[in-house]
From TrEMBL:
Signal peptide: none
Pfam families referenced in this protein's UniProt entry, alphabetically: HMG_CoA_synt_C, HMG_CoA_synt_N
Taxon lineage: Bacteria, Bacillati, Bacillota, Bacilli, Bacillales
Protein name per the record: Hydroxymethylglutaryl-CoA synthase
Protein source organism: Tigheibacillus halophilus
Chain ranges of the Hydroxymethylglutaryl-coenzyme A synthase C-terminal domain: 175-249, 264-354
Keyword NAD: no
Enzyme class: transferase
Length: 390
């Protein structure tokens, strides 16, 4: 049975800060951020956007009435959930008008969560071929003002509809994965911002990639030359490139040039959004599909997922005929074009704004947010969401 990604949606807040301006304000050479790290703009989430609303907005653009009825499993991968008990998957159910006869839950394993959801969805469809699964990666990356990780913050979500006979990407049979208990990045329950051992995390990212790449080659008997492109989880856009370069000598110059060129295209969205944790790999895939016109149906796309702590996985998929018809290229172009640049001072003010820690009543200015789905406030410890289209 062919199983894979049938539709993809994406959403990011309407505000961003320019990396050149952030570098200047931090007394850093702008080239360190734009060239050394590979980031150009960083999405900034106002209080009216949280991981729930980001997830719902990403899914809203791809679901029709048939999908709403057929979806019987909703999986959300996140590492910035809003509740220790209740999942984001349950929050978004009424916002998207989904059939209540469905399972819904949240997965946590750093940036690997959405990939875990994708693989679980694949197994579910194999057992229930007539159903559909909604998988979403949604996150707001926070390291703290003036921290070493500040430049790799971001906010956004990617939604994927998984089904049999997919129209975008058919997932292939083989996959390789590896887990170790390491402390390269973590956020204790008492901390608002993450902790990271940057050098160690970079080393582990590449080490895990090399390990699962070798495992995948042994299982699939595929060579590097048989891949049109490889998409990577991108905590920052130079990270995936460092990993890719470790295997390029396995093929000839023409194939190396193609893989490098497609990598450059795959980072287009990521360098203008920043790190969105669980959705980062799938934002890279979407960037490749929507910005590289020459990708033929039947092309093989490799995928490397990494979640600190740590889990790594490599898998691949085959582009389907007329996959472009399922994309929302103009809508996403409009989303980027309509974003508003804010000053570093404005970014710092927004970053420090918090919802009441004691759950007391709060009303937010939702008319200032152009998104269809927003967080309107808190009342009696309950988050209040509004779908402006309902």
């Amino acid at each position: 049975m062919n199983i894979g990604i049938d539709k993809m949606g994406f959403y990011s807040p309407h505000l961003y800060v320019d990396m050149n301006e952030l570098a200047i304000s931090r007394d850093v050479d702008p080239g360190k951020f734009t060239v050394g790290i590979g980031q150009e703009k960083m999405a900034v989430a106002p209080l009216t956007q949280d991981p729930v609303s980001l997830a719902a907005n990403a899914a809203l653009e791809i679901l029709d009435e048939t999908d709403q009825e057929k979806i019987d499993l909703v999986i959300v991968g996140t590492e910035s959930g809003v509740d220790h008990s209740k999942s984001i998957a349950t929050y978004i159910h009424p916002l998207l008008g989904l059939n209540p006869q469905a399972r819904a839950f949240e997965i946590k394993q750093a940036c690997y969560g959405a990939t875990a959801g994708l693989q679980m969805a694949k197994g579910h469809i194999a057992l229930h071929p007539d159903s559909k699964v909604l998988v979403i990666g949604t996150d707001i990356a926070r390291y703290g003002l003036r921290s070493s990780g500040e430049v790799t913050q971001g906010a956004g979500a990617v939604a994927m509809l998984i089904s049999r006979e997919p129209r975008v990407l058919r997932l292939e049979e083989h996959h390789a994965y590896h887990t170790e208990d390491i402390m390269d990045f973590w956020r204790p329950t008492y901390a608002e911002n993450a902790f990271v051992d940057g050098k160690f995390s970079n080393e582990q990212y590449i080490s895990f990639f090399n390990r699962v790449w070798e495992q995948y080659k042994a299982a699939s008997h595929l060579k590097l030359a048989e891949y049109e492109a490889i998409c990577f989880h991108m905590p920052y856009t130079k990270m995936g490139l460092k990993a890719l370069r470790t295997i390029l000598e396995e093929t000839d110059e023409a194939n190396r040039d193609r893989l490098l060129a497609n990598y450059e295209v795959s980072k287009t969205f990521n360098k203008n959004i920043g790190n969105i944790y669980t959705a980062s790999l799938y934002l890279s895939l979407l960037s490749l599909l929507e910005n590289q016109e020459g990708l033929p149906a039947g092309a093989r796309i490799g995928m490397y997922s990494y979640g600190s702590g740590a889990v790594g996985e490599f898998f691949s998929g085959i582009l389907q005929p007329d996959y472009q018809k399922q994309l929302h290229i103009q809508r996403h172009a409009d989303l980027f074009a309509s974003r508003k640049e804010i000053s570093v001072t404005e970014y710092e003010e927004i970053f420090q704004q918090m919802l009441p820690a004691d759950g007391s009543k709060a009303d937010l200015a939702i008319n200032e947010d152009p998104a269809d789905i927003v967080l309107a406030g808190i009342e009696h410890h309950v988050r209040q969401y509004v779908n402006k289209k309902q």
